[in-house]
């Protein structure tokens, strides 16, 4: 099993990413890239949910956004997926009748998502890591031993803690729930069959799924 974490200086990170892309470029068997995360890797889920509920998109092409992504071009999930020979990363979409925006892809990431499950059920809540895993479980999809899983969370967790600090200077940012949610989520993925996991986007938990450093 390989759990690769990215928490290193820019040059080393670039080299590590290059190595991953090279590895993905020549898969020995057909593989799928499953994605869980936030806007850095969302390829249309937030857009699908909003439009499925009759709300305006947050990623309009008129403002420079590319194909319902939070970027002006393909994102990292797309690049990895294309290097695996699967084409751009396909969003899972909004599986609610009339299924106008249901794509049934392997990308479950959602713009605005936090690792931890904070604000569940409140208006505007973005599906957390746990929520995305539940959606994956309900989808009937399975992760094969040769498939890849990309997990990209963290920015929104940090942002929310900083906002609490701004509102209350005496507040001490606490990422315990984020740490726990990450480790529990990774354990769930391993339990679901994942053997090749890449974690990016945050300072990863110091202790991993099996007790050692991730």
Give an overview of the whole structure.
By secondary structure, the protein is α/β, with parallel strands linked by helices. It has a single domain (2-200), classed as 3-Layer(aba) Sandwich (Rossmann fold). It contains six helices and four strands. It has a four-stranded parallel β-sheet with strand order 1-4-3-2, with helices on both faces. The relative contact order is 0.19. Residues 5-16 and 204-214 have low confidence and may be disordered.
Total of DSSP H or I helical runs spanning 4+ residues: 6
What structural category do the secondary elements indicate? alpha/beta
Secondary structure tally: strands: 4
Q: What is the class in the CATH system?
A: Alpha Beta
What order do the strands of the largest sheet run in, or round the barrel if closed? Answer: 1-4-3-2
In the CATH hierarchy, the architecture is 3-Layer(aba) Sandwich
- The 3D shape can be described as globular
């Amino acid at each position: 099993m390989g759990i690769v974490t990215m928490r290193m200086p820019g040059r080393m990170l670039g080299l590590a990413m290059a190595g991953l892309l090279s590895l993905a470029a020549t898969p020995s068997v057909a593989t799928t890239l499953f994605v869980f995360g936030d806007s850095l890797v969302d390829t249309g889920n937030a857009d699908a949910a909003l439009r499925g509920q009759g709300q305006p998109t947050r990623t309009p092409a008129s403002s420079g956004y590319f194909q319902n992504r939070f970027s002006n071009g393909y994102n990292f999930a797309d690049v990895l997926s294309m290097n695996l020979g699967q084409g751009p990363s396909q969003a899972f979409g909004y599986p609610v009748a009339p299924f106008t925006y249901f794509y049934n892809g392997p990308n479950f990431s959602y713009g605005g998502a936090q690792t931890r499950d904070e604000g569940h059920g409140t208006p505007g809540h973005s599906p957390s890591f746990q929520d995305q895993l539940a959606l994956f479980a309900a989808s009937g999809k399975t992760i094969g031993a040769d498939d890849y899983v990309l997990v990209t969370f963290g920015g929104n967790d940090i942002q929310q803690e900083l906002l609490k600090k701004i509102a209350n200077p005496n507040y001490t940012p606490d990422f315990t729930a984020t740490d726990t949610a990450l480790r529990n989520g990774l354990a769930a993925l391993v339990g679901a069959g994942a053997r090749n996991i890449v974690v990016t986007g945050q300072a990863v938990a110091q202790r991993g799924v099996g007790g050692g450093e991730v």
